[in-house]
Amino acid sequence: MTANDKPVLRVTVFSDYICPFCYLGWLRLEKLRGDYDLRINWCMTEIHADNPPEGCPPTDTGYTPAQWGRMVTDLDVFAAEDGVRFGGLDYTTNSHRALLLAEAAKEEGSEAFYAVHRRLFEMYLCEGRNLADKQLLRELVGSLGLNPSLPDRAWNEPRYERKLQEYALAARELGVSATPTFFFGPQPLLGLQTLDTLRLAARASLVAATTESLDTPP
Q: Which domain CATH number covers 25?
């Protein structure tokens, strides 16, 4: 089945690169491409804007050591289901520059965006590298063979900051209280979802769209 033969599935996702649940949620969402022409609207969402760029322990963000330990244990189980091994969960950092870079990368095309998108997740969550490090992000762009001006454009041109502000406002208006949050229609799916749940949501959204088209008066 070619992309042209598949039904178009539009999904909006609120996501941050320092959120391990977001990485797993994306990997599961990608599995829908076998059945759908998947169009994802990525809303870059900064979940810990107060984190210092040099990084800090996760307990500085409100978790107790016991809570964080339990969450990491659960995450390792979830990650194993998706063939992922986390290696950067002993500290957290500020994701603002990474989010701006990803937003700017959208203008370079889908292939470029998803290359940046994947590596941002991998570098922090699997390799334990600091996404606030400007030099690291420049090296990422270079390693992917992208336009070397991309980082400076992302960090200096106001339109990307405005997009992040628009996403933050939309998140508040839509009641987004966790990342990832998926919208297959008007109702949100908050947090990491199973693949079965994502498939059900996809089918339901297409049924709803078909029903709406049938109800449209001539």
A: 3.40.30.10
Tell me the whole-structure pTM to 2 decimals. Answer: 0.92
**Number of structural domains, the chain?**
1
Is pLDDT at 153 greater than 90 in this prediction?
yes
Specify the residue for token string 């491409």: 33
How many Å apart are CA 123 and CA 121, to the nearest integer?
A: 6
Query: In this structure, what token pair is assigned to residue 179?
Result: 């990342």
Q: What is the pLDDT of residues 58-107, one digit of tens each?
A: 999 888 999 999 999 999 999 999 999 998 688 999 999 999 999 999 99
The residue range of the domain holding 169 is 3-215
> HEC states along the chain?
CCHHHCCEEEEEEEECCCCHHHHHHHHHHHHHHHCCEEEEEEEECCCCCCCCCCCECHHHHCCCHHHHHHHHHHHHHHHHHCCCCCCCCCCECCCHHHHHHHHHHHHHCHHHHHHHHHHHHHHHHHCCCCCCCHHHHHHHHHHCCCCCCHHHHHHHCHHHHHHHHHHHHHHHHHCCCCCCEEECCCCEEECCCCHHHHHHHHHHHHHHHHHHHHHCCC
Tens-place pLDDT, residues 178-218:
999 999 999 999 999 999 999 999 999 998 876 554 444 45
Q: Give the residue carrying structure tokens 């539009």.
A: 10
